[in-house]
Hints:
alpha/beta, 23% helix
Amino acid sequence: MSPGRRRPEGWSRPDPGPRPDVPAAERLRIHEIFYSIQGESTHAGRPCVLVRLTGCQMRCRWCDTEYSFYQGRWRTVEAVVDEVVGLGCPLVEVTGGEPLLQPGCLTLLERLCDRGLEVLLETGGGLDIRPVDPRVHTILDLKCPGSGEVEANHWPNLEALRPGDEVKLVIADEEDYRWARDVIERHRVAERVPVHFSPVAGELEPEELAGWILRDRLPVRLQLQLHKLVWGAEVRGV
């Protein structure tokens, strides 16, 4: 969080949990684990296990997973890995909230890779991704001004991107689009990793965003949330 930046109302880090005998790196507060179709990124459409961790330090104006800010139950990393492996799917995504808030997230990512799984991490981009296991494919959700959290972006993350990583930007209007276009061009992000532009549902029509991308011949992908098209915007656990 930037110096002098106010924490959003209701913000809290996950508490230490009810198991003081278990080190922080070996426990996680889990909101939900479920088997579904991957809805975003270059992996969209693939069967995937989603592991959603509780807690987030951001409050994006258009957030569609506010329910993950609170609740959840504490699990050991070992128990989570065993449950994921037991679902029999080779692709798993760790998401939130903001999963990197919990020290156990790094352990979880490493252990999932050790079990031979293809591992994705979706992070809001406000925390350093350099400690993430290099076998993990990081999906960096860079925040545009319309989110209300642009000041929370950890800009060194753009230089820390590795092959196999991706960048996502959620676009609310043409001002957001111009900002995103300039950032992508200035940092030459699309030359290194896939970049996805997603319209804010109910605020920006996909065809309008598509028109701007085509007009500027921008080397990015228009991304719609596949899971919402299949099951609807209000359905959880899919």
